[in-house]
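Thread: "does anyone have the structure for this chain?"

Original post by V.I.:
We have the sequence but no experimental structure in hand. Need at least a predicted one for the grant figures.
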Amino acid sequence: LAVTQEYDAKKDCAFYAYNPAGGTILTLTPGVFAVFFPNEGHMPCLAVGSPATVKKVVVKIKADSARR
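Reply from O.Q.:
Generated one for you, tokens below.
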């Protein structure tokens, strides 16, 4: 992905250019969740139909811990 905003350690995020040919549409419904790994780009804050309030949980595990 082409970087549009470099990684910001304070916000713990970076931004990349949208590439419609290089992705998959994932529609989440109530009771369903998704897991994204560090090398997987994703587009948060999108809505299908009318926007609704959602609960967002971010869990970060040090990458070295996951390899053990």
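V.I.: this helps a lot. The chain has a mean pLDDT of 83.
O.Q.: and The chain has one helix and two strands.
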